[in-house]
Amino acid sequence: KEYNIDAPVLMKTLKEEGIKEKDRWVRGFVRRFILAQFPRTKEDVKKSFKYVKDHSTDSVRFKYEKLLSDAEKISENIDGTHYQFYPKVSDSGYDLRIRKGDSSDEWVVEIDGYLVKKMNNNEERYFPTLKYKIKAGKATLQNPEGLYVVEANIERIVDYVSGKKE
After folding, report:
1. Nearest-angstrom CA–CA distance, 129 and 1
2. Burial profile 119-147: b = 16 or more Cβ within 10 angstroms, e = fewer
3. Tens digit of each residue's pLDDT (9 = 90 or more) over 79-135
4. Are 11 and 139 in contact (CB under 8 A)?
5. Which site in 43, 116, 129, 149 is 20 to 30 Å from 99, CA atoms measured?
6. Consecutive H or E run containing 158
7. pLDDT per residue over 8-25, tens digit each?
8. What is the pTM of this model?
């Protein structure tokens, strides 16, 4: 077996492996997906949105297809307007939670962090939880991992007393 950082090269071998290897596989995929979801420079916009589009399905894929078609406009404005996500780090590492989904080839991943939204000269800070529903599918040339994001949501607590989320 070979690993390119944390992306498996031999998918059949990995699917036959245990929980530790699958955990490593999903963690690496989520890390790359989040980096692509929030591009930081104008040169990264097209490449990042294409990665997200190729590694998602349904409404997530549709959203990033639309963003990819507007990539030129987004690239022009990314210096003045953009999002930056920083995962929350605790003593045991990143606050990343992975649990089984409805089927054996599905996972729900949650990661707490800090989101900085810069728009013109205004800056807003949130403490959201990113939630992803990931499903294993067919590996392709564009998606050699064979993992697809089915749902992607950003939740944040609006009222800590009542627990109201948005």
Report:
1. 34
2. eeeeeeeeebbbebbbbbeeeeeebebbb
3. 777 788 888 887 766 678 888 888 878 899 999 888 888 887 888 888 888 999 999
4. yes
5. 116
6. strand 157-159
7. 555 554 456 677 777 888
8. 0.81
